[in-house]
Amino acid sequence: MRFVFHITSKPLLIAFLSGLCLAAFGQEYSSKFEAVSLKKSKVNFKNQLVEDQKNNILRYEYFYNGGGVAIGDLDGDGLDDIFLTGNMTANKLYRNLGGLKFEDVTKVAGVGGKDSWTTGVSMADVNGDGLLDIYVSFSGKGTPESRKNELWINLGGFRFEEKAEDFGIADPSNTTQGLFFDFDRDGDLDLFLLNHHIQVINTLEFDAVRKERHPYAGDKLYENVGGKFIDISEKSGIKSNALGFGLSVLASDINGDGWPDLLVTNDYIEPDYLYLNQGDGTFSDRMAENFQHISHFSMGADIADINNDGLPDVLTLDMLPEDNERQKLLYGPENYEQYALMLKQGFHHQNMRNMLQLNQGNGAFSEIGQMAGISNTDWSWSALFLDANNDGQKDLFVTNGYFRDYTNRDFLKYKGDYYFRQAIDGQKADTLHLVTSMTSTPVHDYFFENKGNLQFLDRSEAAGFASKNFSSGAAYSDLDNDGDLDLVVSHLNETASILENKSEKGSWLQVELREKSQNPYALGALLTVFAQGETQKLELYPTRGFQSSSTYRLHVGLGPNSQVDSLQILWPDQHVQTLVKPTINQLLRIEKAEGLPSYQASPKKQSLLAKASDGAGIAVPTSSLNDFKRQPLMLTMPSHLGPIMAKTDLDGDGLEELFVGGSKGSPGRIYTYQDSAWVAYRGFRSAAEFTDAVALFEDFNGDGKADLFLGSGGYHDYTSEDASLRDRLFLNDGNGVLVPQGNFPDYRISTGAAVALDANGDGFLDLFVGARLIPGRYPEIPASRLLLNDGKGKFTLSEAALPQGGKLGMITAATKQDLDGDGLQDLILVGEYLSPLALINRKGSFEDQSERYFPALLSGWWSSLAQADLDGDGDLDLVAGNFGLNSQLVANADKSLRLYAADFDQNGSIDPILECFVDDDYYPFASRDELLDQMAGMRSKFTNYAGYSKAKVSDLFTPEELAKAQRLEANMLESTYFENTPEGFVPHALPRIAQSNPTYAILVTDLNGDGRPDLILGGNQSQNRIRIGKIDAGLGLVLLNAGPGRFQALSPAESGLMIKGDIKSILELSLGGQKTLVFGINQQQPEFYHRQ
Amino acid sequence: MKKTLTCLFLLASFLVISHPSLAQKKDSNWPRIYSEQHFHITEVMVTDVASPPVAARIYAYSNLAAYRVLQESGAEFSHGDFLAQSTIQGKMTGLSLGNIDAPEFAAIYAMFLVGEKIMPSGYLLEEKQEAWKAWGLKTKTVGKKNIEAHLAYAQAVADQVLSVARKDGYLQLTAMTRYTPKEGPGYWYPTPPAYMAAVEPEWKTMQTFFLRDLDQYDPAPMAPFDLQPGASFQRQMMEVYERGKKLSEEERLIANFWDCNPFKVEFAGHMAIGVKKISPGGHWMGITGIAAQKAELGFAETAFLHALVGMALHDAFVSCWKAKYDTHRIRPETVINQTLDETWKPILQTPPFPEYTSGHSVISSAASTLLTAYFGDGFGFVDSSEVYFGLPEREFTSFYQASDEAAISRLYGGIHFRDAIENGVVQGKKIGAFIWESIGK
């Protein structure tokens, strides 16, 4: 389901129910692949493994990684041929006879290879003679000699000669694959050798091991010097330590500087490397600067422009399953100390799931794999982006499967029991028995159709990938020259598949490049196709996916288009060749022309905002509090709520003071801007025990000077009615000194929101204080309060003024407007597990009329709220921040998030049990370890992981227990624009990129001076359970108001905003006459941006 | 009978029995039968991977049930009733169940009933209960007519014991704030390879059976964290480091013999392997059984001794765990890796809780003090508890010899400093002496 962000004439939920976004050219095509029968194809290759005492997974960690596929036209007949590698079986070469018929020419060609553990394969014209050669890699537990990689030089006519020694690349490393590319742009092909270790390194040795180069495990870079390859790894900056478990390597000009960069994915603890080519013969790993978090057990990968914005995006695969049962069998206890240690040792943020790093330009990447819908594909090997249905959007194919359920948590304990039992029985433990006692679960490959708008739709079953197996290497090519891409997939213990593309498809264009150089295939060229305002880019780097290399033909889908406007080739030497209106639905063979112009980068457009250095002097509270130690079943940590900010001119000098909220241990402070720096404001002091959740500068005593209300919030180590939860009022003494008011009512709630409004129509500003939570007792709902002002700043609690005794929900944000036009200000509230509330002012008391103003099914994890006349119709519309779509959690009209809470085991603690929809049904979110840690009684109920893996909430509790429990529900997570109409508020989801992170701060201001209020959103959430991980795709988002109800999302390059961190507040200040935006960021210095 | 029923402690009895089965006569060797049946409790703990303090609690309550059956049925004990001086005395009042023909039968059954309820995988004991009933009938220990009465008797006693267990603070543990390692030098932090979370940081809140004021059993102060050459802590660290490098075969064997790590995790890439052993408490329950067999105790005395040792182990663990989470002391592995040698690894896997005092030292000393008091000093025995883990039997001339060896084994193993061992021994002996004192012999 998708949200549209334009106005529809029909109110209510119609806007939410429109269909999927159309593909690039506005037409839908369904993808379909069909296996070609063995009888027809004659491709009978089978990567058969034989498990015995000597060869098994306990002896060799990469025993089930599978084989590779390489495709290329080896004999120049216009038909792509296929080479397949076998780990324990001979490799095979199949000549393409056309019509998806193949002939096994392995014997004639002599390329069966030696009897060693064979891994990946690549095709490249290594010697520049115009014929593609084959480079085969080896690994395993054998001798270095047995692992020497093979280079099969193509002599033409399917005759080959093994020449690796001659070329200097008979390397004995434990190689996964070789990648050929011209890294120094000298016109010939160099080699990056991706290697892996064959022993697991003990954590203790990490630091030592990282400093050393390992001769067989470390990656290598070979420079081609006149046909001889020279190892230049060390001097070129390539890391070669024994922690490297390289599983894929891709070349791509990630940063668009014309030099090919490299992505190396690493299994286990070692982070992936993003080697940026420095253009001087060296690489620099800039992964951590570019990617905020990465896959933990990174496997296959692909790089392609998935949203046609001209920037290559990066996908890395991992092993998170889609279904509940396999997830529950896999998840162990969350270990925050170990995670902290991993960070401290420089291993970066790593989580076990596929990561899609959306390239936003200028080195800004937003990880949106979950929002895109491609994060969970089980134990995955190959990722290939290819436009399968020729609709102009690159779809995604993922192979997966691991022959033994090796990570099953029960197996860990079972194994221990087995040894114990064998010991008691006086028998020797048998490793092979253990291996074969591991279960084997085949899984289906995944095929996702790219629907545009950063959405992929799982079409695995419909597209022909329903059957379950163990797939590894894969490659694509138009094998039958019919204008679409077919697939070749290698399986463990089963015959490899040739999958014919039978999609209902759009028009197309294929391009083959040739140049007269030592790189005749123009490896590294960039093709740009312009059609109908859409721009598609493809880089010619056939080595991609996993252990495999695909066709040398560049394939572009064109949808319903009957022509392309032009195409542009950026040759590896950075010369540009342009073809205008070439004929489509054909293969274009393009020879590099003479005298081409050099590529000229277009000048950068000025961004709306520019980062300024105005933050000096501001102290920001930091805290390493872990709320999960207190309530282990919460999802996010409520302690880390600030800094909040507020501004006013306190001393009447015409300059605005800035309040920056504190967190327990670090008091809130007010600052004055003097001489380009912030200095502490003298007339205010707050105690360090408080956590500031709301700050309101208002004139509460009618003396014309701003006073300050501070709502105290937080979770921290506060008791449920902690004295530090008192809200505070400071009255301005007229000289700018804020005097604390001891007579302010003493009520103890963790405040989430507050609004100053005249509640009883007496002309004085009263206060609504929204209650967020009770520390230690989440999600119990505390009572919000109404406080009446006697006009002199003396407040009294107004009992019974609010519906439900004030227990309205976990309130996070509030605003006021006169909804019913009676001249009295009404309240609009949002909160967690709450549908927006409209409380109508009945002169001092409030009546819940939410149903009159808001449609149903809007319960969300709302966290921020702003209002403005966004559509220019004279009334106030709303913008509300929600949790967004970029997590494992799903909530919509059909699938809700349900939270049951009670002290189920009667031990004095609230047990919040979240139930969520996973794959096919509702299941408890908590892993077995998490649940057992919360409730001792569950330990007898679920004595193993298997038992819990199928458990539903109804297996945890009796219907009576559930009936008595507090029950909360959420059914939408999109941040939303609410259009104010006579029928009430009509929700429209904000643009999709705004859903890639939770939104905690919203500022409305006219940024581009067109008279229409624009939106600036800030958010992210880093304080999550480890399993959820950091949600940090947001970089500060500008949404330009593009006419009634339409918002245009600006990229970081356009807006100038690139803020990494959890934005909690945004303010606009005037600093020395300069309009300045201030972003309050959790645990970080605030960032300042000037308008340009 | 399955082979797996083979008694763990069989080899301790000098008699060589070819293949012991449960088909014993009524006047059979009760201490051996007790040990055999008691080992089923240990087996379930191994399945559940009960941590050392949790294991001791289970031993305490399950053996208490057996003892209570005997007491209820009017058995006489050579050292009187130790419950009279316990903290649970008021909750262990007589149930007026009267006499039964075979209190031994009901006692073992009550032990199973408590074990079943108190352990997560307690259901595994159902099979043992059935086997026990069959044995009782087959050996005519009980008859078809009166077996139900025996089972009901056992159930009543088990219910009483379980009602105490339910209120001993265990269920409240999950309501408490989880442990956050303290920041700063010298503090404990999770250790490789699994970096497991701190085990039972709030164990000091558990009800003890005999100790009424835990502060009285706090160990002597530990050497303050000080890495200056010559400082006590620094010297102790160097001792662990250097000693580990030049262990004799015998010392290496001692370290492994007393390892008693219930769950050692070995990693191989994606796969973690849990290697299981019995806990330190389990080891001493084993020795208790071995001694009871050697002394040819009757059933009542056997039950008395097992319950007393089990409950004392629990108290000793609570006291030791209080010290651990009062001091939060760093493990040798962590400080050596940080300051001395980043690749140093102890021979034993460092268990997941702070260092001071050494649990094995405290609980072994408490147990040996009681066993010595009961059997007298110089009671020699052959400890065969670890034969199943590939380690030979070890002969000891006294309980103290065994407990002192258990204590120093932690230094050889590289997981404790000397003061945690020596002060732990003192702490444990004080606890043992107090308990023996308090039961009034």
TrEMBL record, chain A:
Signal peptide as annotated in the record: 1-23
Keyword Glycoprotein: yes
UniProtKB keywords: Glycoprotein, Repeat, Signal
Keyword Glycoprotein: yes
Name of a matching Pfam family: UnbV_ASPIC
Record-linked SMART domains: Int_alpha
ASPIC/UnbV domain boundaries: 522-588
Protein name: VCBS repeat-containing protein
Automatic annotation (TrEMBL), chain B:
Entry keyword annotation includes Metal-binding: no
Signal peptide residues on this chain, from the entry's feature table: 1-23
Sequence ranges assigned to domain Phosphatidic acid phosphatase type 2/haloperoxidase in this UniProt record: 305-437
Keywords tagged on the record: Signal
Keyword Signal: yes
InterPro entries hit by this protein: PAP2/HPO, PAP2/HPO_sf, V-haloperoxidase
UniProt feature coiled coil, ranges: none
Domain of life where this protein originates: Bacteria
CDD domains in UniProt: PAP2_haloperoxidase (cd03398)
UniProt xrefs under PANTHER family: PEROXIDASE-RELATED, PHOSPHATIDIC ACID PHOSPHATASE TYPE 2_HALOPEROXIDASE DOMAIN-CONTAINING PROTEIN
Protein's recorded name: Vanadium-dependent haloperoxidase
Organism, scientific name: Algoriphagus oliviformis
Taxonomic path: Bacteria, Pseudomonadati, Bacteroidota, Cytophagia, Cytophagales
